[in-house]
Every structure is written in C-alpha cells, then in structure tokens.
C-alpha cells in the first residue's frame, strides 16, 4: 500500500507492552498507519524498550513502570503484566496530558492505540475524552477464551482442569475444554482472572478493535467476538505482510544462518525456535539436542540466552554436540525469523506456536511441529493441527519422540500433505491482501473510522 500524499492530519499515540511478541506487531501496525498519513508517537515502559533509532519517523516517549525487580529477574510474565497495569496508568495519563497541552493544532492527537494487555489505557483514554483503539496481537479466538472463561470458572468447570475433558467449548467449538483450561491455567493459579476480565471490559468500551488475523483463518471466532463484545472489529493481519518493516528485535539477529541456509537443499531444513519468552529445563534442552542430532535432517536451532532459566544455554550443550552434527546443524542465539521462514531451504518449523510465529509460518507456506507452552499457544496449536491441518503436535520432549515427529513432518507423506495445505493457505493470505479483498478493505475502513473521530 502506497504512502498517501496528504498532510499529516492526526497523531496516533501507541501504547506498547514490552514483550518481543507484542512490540513486533505494534510497530508493524504503526508503520502501516504512518504510511496512511498519520503521525505516530510510541509510548513505552522503560523495561525492554525497542531501539528508537530504527524508527526515526516515530516519536518515542518512555514512561516510568516501577517494575518490581523480583518479578523481572524471575521472568514472571504475569507478575510483570499485572505490575505494568497497576503502575503505568498514572504516568501514561500525565504523559498524554503534557502532549495535549503542547499540541500543535495541525497535528492533533486523534486517539490512543493500545496493546490489549495494557488494558488500563482505555480508562486513560476515557478520562482524557479521547477514543481508544484496542489492538489484539493474538488471534480473535483468544478473546473468546477471555469471554467464556469466567463463566466456565464460575460454573466449576475449571476445577476439572486436569481431567483433560475432550468436550468442546460451546462458544468455540474448535476447542476442547482441556485446551481452554490449559491456556487459562496461569490465570487461575496466578490470580490473574481480574486481568482477563479487565481486558474483556476494555474491549467492550473501546471505539475500535484491531486484530492481527485474517478473516478466513478464524471466521467463526471473529463473528463471535463482534457479537459478544459489540466491538467494531478490523481484521487487518498479517501486519508484517502489508508493508516491508524494519526489524524490532530486542536481541541481535545472527544473519550467518542465512548463508548456511543457502547451502541446504530445498525444503530440507527443520527450523526450531520457541520464541522470546518460553523456557525449558536442562533435561529438555538435552533431549532436544539429541532429537535433532539423530533426526537426519539439517536443522537451524535458536538457542536463546535464558531459554533454560538463568543460563546462556550454549554452555549446557554437550561438548561434542557441534562436532557430532557437523555442518548439518546451525545454532544461533537469535535468528532473522521472517527471512529464515521465507528461505526455500526451510521445510518445517518446530515452534512454540506463538501467534506471530504461527502467522509468519503460514505466510511462507511452512508446516509446523507444535509444542505449545502456555497461554494462547495452546489455542493456536489447535487451529494449526485440527482446523487448518498444517501441522502436528509434538507429545513430549523426549529424543526418540522428537526424531519420529520430525520425520513425520519432513519426510512422510503426511508431512507432504501438510506442506501442500500450508502453501494453499499462504496463497489465500496473499489474496486477502489484494485490492478489494478482506484485509485491504478492512484497512481502508479502519482509516475512515480513525478520520471520523
Ligand atoms: N523471532 C525472531 N528471531 C528468533 C525468534 C523469534 O525474530 O530467533 C521473532 C518472531 O519472528 C516473532 C517474535 O520474535 O515475530 C516472537 O513472537 P511470537 O508471538 O511467535 O512468540 P513470543 O515470543 O511472544 O512467545
């Protein structure tokens, strides 16, 4: 989509939550709306902030977050989210008040565009009489989980959490109760039920909801979200495919893996990454190493510092590991993932099923081996394996199971069928971006909506 030749008429104030899987889509969305003629201010907590010099076209403003050191050093995701929601409301309000005071009449603040997990931003918008736009960086189905979970919890269903019920969730028939329960488990155990309700509440109050998804991928869930939340929803994903965007990686990308990939046979490489937050224990790291060493496929493995809590991980691998796999294995601490998935050598993605990774894999027609850890990853896996049929579930972190699952995905007829379906999905996504199709239309409607504020 071309940048429109028009004067900057209004400013959008983005509020980020400081996690890689949220920063990426939020900055992609900001880039898309900048290209549509809006000016952009990015407000972010001091923790984990993106490199502003990569985006000279945006104004970046940090706000204080007072995050408790204990939660941060323990990597307690839900503790951090909860603290951000408590601590940032005042600083955000003050920051936007200052902006309003200094406002240029030709560059007015039009609305606050916030990550749905920073749901207090809607109260700030209401207080300052500005429209709030809520952005969901996970699929629409996860919002239904927020909506149906408190009811199921009240009805006592979730006490049967561990019973692994195979019943379908009535509002979301693609899911089984056990998966809904697994995805929401953290919420009960960590007392985060309130936050789930606050997210749902902000979605009901916002002036518009943007979801990084594609209509045809989860039509049933999108329709239900509109009904349940009476939300004016704009599905304009996958954001990263609308415009070329600059990397917003918090870790340095190791691009050497691209030259390694260029030497591998087409569709031969299994790419392995568990995203920016999930962690495994030392035993699981070693089982993964031996599963990959024995699988007979070339592999590219992201071993992120902290993948095993408190360790830089590479030191935990057996001393002879790289020698035993030789040129067949490439290990990096952080990869340029979108470029990796787009490389013709990559034939499969063993993923934790984070939503960005799932969308990025779909967009490149790469089938997946799914091993979700928490939250929406369980829901995403269900769609990948049972609804779109472009992946299979890895049951456990055991070297022999890993080896067999990689063969099923990369070599067996079953995997080849999944690859065909994945390529078909990729083509459908490409169509949705074309003029007159769902994403293109939804983006134009969103721009009209913002201009109407
Ligand atoms: N990513 C990357 N390099 C890596 C691993 C991940 O650039 O080595 C990016 C990936 O492309 C995605 C994001 O980090 O955009 C991870 O988001 P996702 O929702 O998949 O998972 P999360 O990190 O939130 O669990």
Automatic annotation (TrEMBL):
<dbReference type="Pfam" id="PF00201">
    <property type="entry name" value="UDPGT"/>
</dbReference>
<keyword id="KW-1133">Transmembrane helix</keyword>
<keyword id="KW-0328">Glycosyltransferase</keyword>
<keyword id="KW-0808">Transferase</keyword>
<feature type="transmembrane region" description="Helical">
    <location>
        <begin position="12"/>
        <end position="35"/>
    </location>
</feature>
<protein>
    <recommendedName>
        <fullName>Glycosyltransferase</fullName>
    </recommendedName>
</protein>
<comment type="similarity">
    <text>Belongs to the UDP-glycosyltransferase family.</text>
</comment>
<keyword id="KW-0812">Transmembrane</keyword>
<dbReference type="InterPro" id="IPR002213">
    <property type="entry name" value="UDP_glucos_trans"/>
</dbReference>
<dbReference type="GO" id="GO:0080043">
    <property type="term" value="F:quercetin 3-O-glucosyltransferase activity"/>
</dbReference>
<keyword id="KW-0472">Membrane</keyword>
<dbReference type="GO" id="GO:0080044">
    <property type="term" value="F:quercetin 7-O-glucosyltransferase activity"/>
</dbReference>
